[in-house]
Amino acid sequence: MMSDASGKSESFLELRRCQVTPELKDDPATAEDRRVGVRVRTVFQTARVVTEDQSQYLGLLRNISPCGMMIETFVPIRTGAQILIEPKMFDPVRATVRWSDGRRVGVELLKPVQLDAYLSSRATLAAAHRPRGPRVSTDLRARLRVGVIWHLVRLLDISQGGAKVATDLSVSLGEEIELDLEGVAPFVGHVCWVRGARIGITFVQPVQLATIAQWVAKLASPAP
Predict the structure, then answer these.
(1) DSSP character for 5?
(2) Where do the DSSP E strands lie in 68-215?
């Protein structure tokens, strides 16, 4: 005897739909998700992706459903990998990679979310309290121009909007600097904070996500 689903909660029904179509892809697969009742939202938000071996990548979260996401990672991640996804404006989630085409991955969330609640969880934060852009931790040498002189420094992390370096250089808040990384054009910025031997830098112009993501992906790739 079949039970009546009309009395079941929305989250229960979404979970059942997730079991039917756990993967998210662009059209026409997205249209297929909608045909079976899975709600898909387009979000276009930067996110950090951390793999099982603690490799870090920057990506673009393109769409989300109660049970999965599609992320442009600019680098292949193997099918079946367990990953941690940290979107800029939403709570971190853990997921399993279900497909990869080299630059994008489709993932199934380990725990389905109630979509409306998840997407609105941080929407009401004031601008001053909103999370900064996702950043990737590094331990690399870089060059920093202060005045007319270039100095070797240690790059601790980087994002689209800025970076953190370790150095014993004497700098002033607001001072213009230039950060030079191997393989990409130098970034012009200003000193936004100084804490002991660490300096925070804000870039004058945000760096394109693809530029940073591909640079980070190259670092994470094993040498030939």
Answers:
(1) G
(2) 68-72, 82-87, 93-100, 104-109, 136-146, 149-158, 162-166, 176-180, 187-195, 198-203
C-alpha 180/C-alpha 186 separation (Å) is 4
Q: What is the pLDDT of residues 8-40, one digit of tens each?
A: 444 433 444 454 334 445 444 444 444 344 578
Residue 107 lies in a domain: yes
Task: Please name the residue that has the structure tokens 């990953």.
Answer: 83
pTM of the model: 0.65
Considering the domain architecture, whether residues 148 and 198 belong to the same structural domain is answered as yes
Question: What sign has the CA pseudo-torsion 135, 137, 143, 147?
Answer: positive
Quote the DSSP letter at residue 130: S
Q: What is the mean pLDDT of residues 33-54?
A: 76
Count of C-beta atoms within a 10 Å radius of residue 184: 14
- What pLDDT does residue 142 have? 92
Q: Is there a contact between 23 and 68 (Cβ–Cβ < 8 Å)? A: yes
What's the domain range around 159? 136-220
* CATH value at residue 29: 2.40.10.220
Q: Rounded to whole angstroms, how far apart are CA atoms 112 and 121? A: 15
Write down the pLDDT at residue 206. Answer: 86
Q: Please indicate whether residue 106 or residue 3 has the higher confidence score (pLDDT).
A: 106
Average pLDDT, the chain: 79
The sign of the torsion formed by the CA atoms of 133, 139, 142, 146 equals: positive
DSSP H helices in the chain: 10-20, 29-35, 115-119, 209-220
**Count of positions (residues) in the chain:** 224
